[in-house]
Amino acid sequence: TLGLPARARFGATITRPDDLPPLLDQAGALGLPLRILGGGSNVVLRPRFDGIIALMAIAGREILDRSHGRTLVRLGAGENWHEAVEWTLQNGLPGLENLAGIPGTVGAAPIQNIGAYGCELVDRFHALVALDSQDGTQRTFTRVDCDFSYRQSVFKRMPGRFIVQSVTLSLPDVWQPNLGYPGLNSLPGDIDPVTVMRTVVAVRNSKLPDWRQTGNAGSFFHNPIVDSVVADRLATDYPELPRYPSADGRTKLSAAWLIERCGFKGQRFGTAGVSDRHALVVVNHGGATEADISALAGRIVAAVEARFGVRLVQEPELL
After folding, report:
1. Per-residue model confidence (pLDDT) at position 246
2. Less packed terminus of the chain by CB within 10 Å, N or C?
3. Which residue out of 153, 166, 219, 275 is catalytically annotated?
């Protein structure tokens, strides 16, 4: 979605779980790395990848079980995430509406524990099935096995090892709207989930440029999580800096605020730049390469660290 020129030595499309073992065998026989892409919305592509890029296209939408106050739905890893969210609501199964509009595939969702507007995948996760590329075995991962945290999972900590084939989500029978996030907190408490979804999509569209018109990978940096010493110092020096409690007892800061205060919002550096809608979005104005995007990202990281003493971490993976 960044619109960068890139070419792989070989390409493949995975439409069935059975496609994976021979593909791994072929990669091994050729001595080439194999990388799996979903929607390509969270990567920064180098001009050349000397290996095999395989596009995940395993389909499937299935209601598994309705009991114990929840409904389990199983989704193929190649399903479009937003379309899957719409499908659940069409079937009267709310719970994913705050995650609507996130680009990419279902299989990519647990890799970085996608989250938006006060909800994370872990909140609705039940299990997934993945192939272990090291020994060729198929494994089922529970929530505990996945070791989820903010934009993290065991899959991200062990990149390339596990190839997600399907994801099972748990959606509550008794639904309560999650309206605590800015942009949603003005909605009435008796709102329906479809309206929440449409509001989330509208808010996202107002902040994020359409990648089909202006190349981008959405949020380019994680919101930094800092310890109490750093949080207290910044609260004293910059009381207006948005801060949020983190699940681990530390403090999450707004990366967008830090970047904007360094003067990057809306600025253009040749073919690359920062969106004038949201300071967290690095954009390709046309003709940018990986080198252009990476140079700008490095410039942003250095400026934020110099001014605030906080080091930003890039979200899209360099491939």
Report:
1. 86
2. C
3. 219
Q: In residues, how long is the chain?
A: 319
Query: Is 151 annotated in the active site?
Result: yes
**Cβ contacts of residue 68 below 8 Å, gap of 6+?**
none
Catalytic residue among 151, 153, 166, 275: 151
CA 116, CA 319: separation in Å to the nearest integer?
24
pLDDT in tens, 11-27: 999 999 999 999 999 99
Residue pair 82/101 in contact (Cβ under 8 Å)? The answer is yes
Burial class of residue 301 (count of CB atoms within 10 Å of its CB; 0-12, 13-18, 19+): middle
Pairwise CA distance, residues 36 & 13, whole Å: 9
Using CB atoms within 10 Å of the CB of residue 299, give its burial: 0 to 12 exposed, 13 to 18 middle, 19+ buried.
Answer: middle
All residues at 6 or more sequence positions from 36 whose CB lies less than 8 Å from its CB, including other chains: 14, 54, 55, 56, 107, 160, 163
CA geometry: angle 151, 86, 101, nearest 5 deg: 40
- Residue 67 bears catalytic tag: no
Closest CA to 81 of 221, 213, 196, 201: 201
Instruction: Identify the pLDDT of residue 181.
Output: 86
Whether 315 is catalytic = yes
